[in-house]
Amino acid sequence: MGITQLLFWLLTVMTLGSALMVIFSKNPVHSILWLIVTFFSISGHYILLNAQFLAIVNIIVYAGAIMVLFLFVVMLMNLNESSSPVKNKWLRFAGVISGGSLLLVMVGALKDTESMQKEILMNTGNIGLINNLGTVLFKDYVLPFEISSVLFLSAMVGAVVIGKK
Amino acid sequence: MILLTIDWAYTIEKMVLIAIVISASLLIAMYATYAERKIAGVMQDRRGPNRAGPFGILQPLADGIKLFFKEEIIPNNSNRWLFVLGPCLAMLTAMMTSAIIPWGSTIEIGGRTISLQIADINIGILYIFGVVSMGVYGIMIGGWASNNKFSLMAALRGASQAISYELAMGLSLIALLMLTGSLSLKTIVEQQINGHFWNIVYQPLGFLIFFVCALAECNRAPFDLPEAESELNMGYHQEYSSMKLGFYLFAEYINMFISCAVIATLFFGGYDMPFVDESQLSGVTALLTGLVALFGKTFILIFVFMWIRWTLPRFRYDQLMNLGWKGLIPLALLNMVITGAVVLFTMKTP
Q1: Which of A53, A65, A72 is the closest to B133 by Cβ?
Q2: Which candidate among B4, B177, B285, B321 keeps its CA 20 to 30 Å from the CA of A69?
Q3: ipTM of the complex, rounded to two decimals
């Protein structure tokens, strides 16, 4: 077992463990902190796949910016264990069903993909490096890329409109 | 020495380098507190610390001992774990940035060529952003866990300030990266050594924006809103005592040292001594000139940070947000567009 595999298993245990802790912690602030740990371990997986740019962008955008906003909102609302509303039984039941079907759909979608049939190569390949990623984004996928940026722009305009009210 | 497919000599070499860099940053941060008080003294026509040792040179040591021996208080209604985690995170993130700064070129010891940079990763400067965006958690968690209204207010202020100024900082760097075409700090320094001028000549506006944002990210005056004592008592570390308070205060000085080193590397040629051709010098001399150059530039920048702190009054909170969102971000965007146009029309694609 080489160092790569050792790291892989360590990161996998970390990812799954912290993801479970997100669900099981009673305190919403703890949940958010565990989610940050999850993002970090996923970034570790990206680094093992030699996708350093993806790894650091995952940290900057998700762990660094979006999670700060989450934390912000939770801290301002001052959610405590006692103040969280008791959900009714049917609502919980519906949640389990819809979450389970989402899992089913995702497993079904991933099962037949190309990457699952090949063995995943660790620590090789350089598609995740910034040069190659930039070239691919701006040559092969320039139209979807620009369209998604329009999507972001419209979201931003929406946020400003709501903020002005 | 290869065991478990790890090159142990390489690992040990990096470990030693990490130990040296961390102890050097701690030492420099320690004496930065002394320098700050002496400079404040000069600016306000006082003497500054002058009791412990000659010229008060032992003052940081005395402060450290005092902080260690103070009683440690954890408030009853605080969240114990997070209360301890806050200062740890602040210290950790302050230390982590130093990993990718090139402190010098290479040296040879016993036939091994050792690079004086802990990690030369190809995302270089983005790593700094990652760590800086983590830095805000130390303040937020500490402020929230104290279970104190003032601390919480300060923590939220700190977070929104950090997020706002990170944007302008990133935009000002994009313009610089367009010119260098590389994210690796080592490559950026080498380009400045081999080229004619330092990057500040090409990017004066970018430097100005980056510098202001660095002040804000380090929570230094005039942007020290998270610890505005006139409105928030002591800010996010109000409930902290003993060495946990010391960690918060110390992390600020380490942040200042590291960000000055980053500015020196990006805009002032890093370990490049002006008017000296490094390739003509022998190994040890080149190393020493490099270190003297880098630390000289860093200390001058630290002095400027302190100078600003003791001459400018603190911003009001709405002024701070206006400056960030309506002043610096449009300016950085403009800088980016102009640089992009110049690069497009004058240079061949790298």
Answers
A1: A65
A2: B177
A3: 0.80
